[in-house]
Amino acid sequence: MISSSAAQAAAAKPETDWSYYMLDGSSSNAYTLGCNQGDFDADHNSNSMAYLDFGGQNSSGSGTLEINDNSVSNATIEAMAENFAIGYYICTGADTTTVLDMSIGTNNSYDDVSTAGGRTWAAVVHAVQDSTDGEDAAPQVYILGGSDIENFGQSDPGGTLDWTNGFNDADVSLYLDYGSADGCPESTHSNSPACNGGYTQYDYWYMGWGNPSAVADPQIYANGTQQEWTMISYYGYSYQGGNPIEFWAPQDEYDLNSSTYSSSTAWTDFWNELNTYSATADTPPFSNEIHDE
Amino acid sequence: MNRRTRPGQRAGRRNHPRVLVAGLGAAALIAAGAGFAYASVSGPPSSPAGGCLGLPACPGSHISPQKAAKFRRLEEAMAAARQHPAVKPAAYHVPAQQPAAARVSGVVDAHQSPFPSTEFTVSNSWQGPVAGRWIVAFAGTWAGLSDSSHTGTVALFDEPVNPNSAPYFNLIGVYHAPKGDLGLTVVSYRGGVLTLKTTTGAAVRFDVASHSFS
Fold it and tell me: Which residue among A76, A171, A293 sits closest to B167, beta carbon to beta carbon?
């Protein structure tokens, strides 16, 4: 039986941070975007969380195919991420206390969705952490991995689960799951029926939180998505040792598609849904919106 | 539906790089050998606002020891970095890059698109030049239509032909196939026309310039 908590007003939405579909290989552009986030955080005395989505990994492990079908190498990805971090660090200026959680993201739609792919991505993240430029930004930038984990028409989550375990085994950082939970139950949390493509609530819970490296920034784009993720969290509470998901942010795509939830609606509807149940009660620390670079 | 970016929607995030100064920051960088020119200040910076990875607090006590350890290691790394206080450079020179290679036309066997997969499941895509524009055509199945008999869909975007130009990726339109086509996959492109295969194996043609099926 699902227990509800008393109705209450939604918590105030934090400033909405911008994440990006990266469309090229330009470090200068990446620097500018990081700089703008640093400017904003310094002006508002706020921390932020942003991911840079570089698309799916290719089969050789040498790079990715961005969402606009533009190929970039791992070295280029690393340079772009480093420059985003440096841009943030420098443009916070005299402010030395705000911090950015910067996620370097891929997705599970292309090749190398495997244990090896997860390790490869962890190596990309580690390279940014270890690079001279990345270290220079280290006082104010946490460097994380990330993936837009979705069903993508797949019939089996096995490769994606392997990817998350490969990333975790490398033990370099956390990764941000900024994906969707397509077709998952909206009102039950017993791991059945299955979501689209044979994925289950367990799979999404594990890949978004149960994996020791996972933190979650789910896509809250339209009615139904906030219920899907709340039920996944409730599943974690009920069947995984009292482990609901502590979400980092609801993510919206209003800038790219104005027929979907705005950041305010995504925040309010997600918060209200999460806090309908004492088992899943949560106030995410961030709000996030995807943009094109 | 409008997927065009809206630059400047929110001042402070885009379009006003503050200290991107080609060459001017080089002296500071050179002085440090590699990386920034750090100089001593009176003390270490204060801790991040809030507790843990910029969060108001670290996740609750019920998280796994392994996850807690990962949070802790990231926190320790930042704390260590803050033991070396620095004066930030006033300017920074982004290292020069090799120009991106010219785009390559052809069919791409990837399943991603700017649309969430709840909305559009992509079978594959084609990209190439059409009438002076670089077109990316995603083919697949559109969800949520009231008439589910024509969910086969092509979504067209364009971007700069020169990959070294300022990036954009603009939606041209979403085009649903005639009834009976439940899903589409790009087979080939020739003379401005995409040949696609439906889920039943039938061939459908899509004129990229006129955005019409035949």
Answer: A293
